[in-house]
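Complex 380.
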Amino acid sequence: MHPLYEQMETSVFERMSLAAAKHGAVNLGQGFPDFGWPDEILKAAANAVVVGSNQYAPSRGLPALRAAVAEHYGRHHGLDLAADHVCVTSGATEALAAAILATVEPGDEVILLTPAYDAYAPLIRRAGGIAREVALQPPDWRIERAALEAAVTQKTRALVFNNPHNPTGRLFDAEELSAIAEIAVAHDLVVIADEVWEHVLLDGKSFVPIASLPGMEQRTLKCGSAGKIFSLTGWKIGWVVSSPEMASLAARAHQFLTFASAPNLQAAVAFGMAEGDAWLQPMRDRFASARNRMMEGLEAVGYAVLPSASTYFLCVDLAASGIELDDEAFAKLAVEQAGVAAVPLSPFADQDKPRHMIRLCFAKRDDTIDAGVAALAKAR
Ligand code: PMP
Ligand code: GLN
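Predicted structure with 4'-deoxy-4'-aminopyridoxal-5'-phosphate bound:
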């Protein structure tokens, strides 16, 4: 097998979901909610299938959705955006692929903060780039300016900045954002900003997009996802938002990745975004209480849980929980013998692998959480 494919293993999310199905386990691995999506958007989608278009959408996206996305971020981020800043993609995964293909040339280095979402490194390598890892250390997972600065070389072209952060659930603070922006400006880097979790904020904090910092708007390719905004992860409607010039580059790559995304789902997302933001706070409240329930349940049976301020995820420190197995061995035992799927963290880094951490998805109904916690109680 070509070495590039050896480095493109089956995604840990697919691996754990298949294992959960095979063993009939509660799936707290792959991140998707089992409740909480807005019914009106489902109806808008059904209507768009029956009376709307089922033929190819314009490659860059339905005009109504591009306008809605520009309006949404203009309002939330205080930026002056229009439809030509937006390219609609098939989920944030395709947005990341298009952003990376639009930016990275063979030999370019791209900085990743690890543990890093699993799509980045394989995409960078297939674009001919080199992923340079800067490891964040538990339990704080802080971005240290000196470590970031030390990773920049003459060849550094871009930095992938995922905020809020999957898998740790961290929302980076103002000092960390300034470090990213100042280093990007000083070294003329493009920032691929994976901000898919921007609205899933659990403790009343606000999210600051990296593009809003001085000097960043022109060098940021933001990747977003309707799947996370509306709790509809299977819809795979996402977007790149950037300057018109950089959005056009991403759009050129997007033409040859998927060309266009499902028109009826785009229409339903446009409808949802135009409805306003009334659903956001109830969603945050429900996910915050789900996080609290899982955290309290796990702590009651002896697990050491790390704080989580965003995303659908919390991490458990196995070593601090008195468990000697590493993350992969524990996840295997949990799914095969205890009946619960988790995600080990070591696939989220190539070098400094966090081998004693697992990630659990708390975006679940109470009964799912309780069943998962009961199974995890048996796994220790
Ligand atoms: N980036 C991050 C950090 C994610 O967590 C996810 C999905 N959980 C994605 C990208 C992919 O988003 P989508 O499902 O819209 O492709
Ligand atoms: N992003 C989701 C997660 O972190 C999984 C998406 C996928 O399966 N590719 O769990």
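Residues 251 and 273 are 22 Å apart (CA to CA).
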